[in-house]
Amino acid sequence: MDRWLLVRGTGERPLRERVTPESLQRHSSTRRPSVQKGDLAVCYASVWQVVFALVEIAGHPENDPERERWRWSFSLRPLLVLPDLREAPPVEAGGVFPRSLGRHSYVRLTSEQYEAAAEALTAATQR
């Protein structure tokens, strides 16, 4: 099982400050993702530069050839969602630095990075 950081939102279309589990049903990518069903992931709000949810990859990557961009997608199962991005911990809490993310849709995490982000998110939900 691998662990991932899923980049959500773009500079042109940032996430709104309120997030719901329903908004975390799928994740899209321009290229075939390396994620597999059963992998775990941390969701990252790109413009906000915070982590706000833990999810499980719930399905295998699927290709939609009729789409020009974001042709690949996979389903998610939310495990923990912090609904207000203003209360979310910075991505650095998981040992990831925003400048290292570039233009990626997802980035592989080490077990230690995933656990650090999960601990920071759990602490934020208990405030």
In short:
The protein is 12% helix and 31% strand. It is built from one helix and seven strands; from the N terminus they run βββββββα.
Structural overview:
This protein is mainly β and 127 residues long. The chain is built from 1 helix and 7 strands, in the order E-E-E-E-E-E-E-H. It has one helix at 111-125; strands spanning 3-8, 26-29, 40-45, 50-57, 62-63, 72-81, 106-109. A hairpin with a 4-residue loop joins strand 3 and strand 4 (50-57). The longest helix has 15 residues, at 111-125. The chain is globular. The termini are far apart. The mean pLDDT is 93.
Comma- or semicolon-separated keywords:
seven-stranded mixed sheet, 127 residues, 31% strand, single chain, mainly beta
| N/C terminus separation | 30 Å
SS element count, helices: 1
Mean pLDDT: 93
- Overall geometric form: globular
Low-pLDDT residue intervals, each spanning 5 or more residues = none
**Oligomerization category of the chains in this entry:** single chain
Structural class assignment:
mainly beta
Helical content, roughly? Answer: 10-25%
CA radius of gyration is 13 Å
Report on the biggest sheet: 7 strands, mixed
Secondary-structure element order, as H and E? EEEEEEEH
**Count of strand segments:** 7
- Strand-residue fraction? 25-35%
What is the element layout, followed by pairings?
Layout: E1 3-8, E2 26-29, E3 40-45, E4 50-57, E5 62-63, E6 72-81, E7 106-109, H1 111-125
Parallel strand pairs: 1-3
Antiparallel strand pairs: 1-7, 2-6, 3-4, 4-6, 5-6
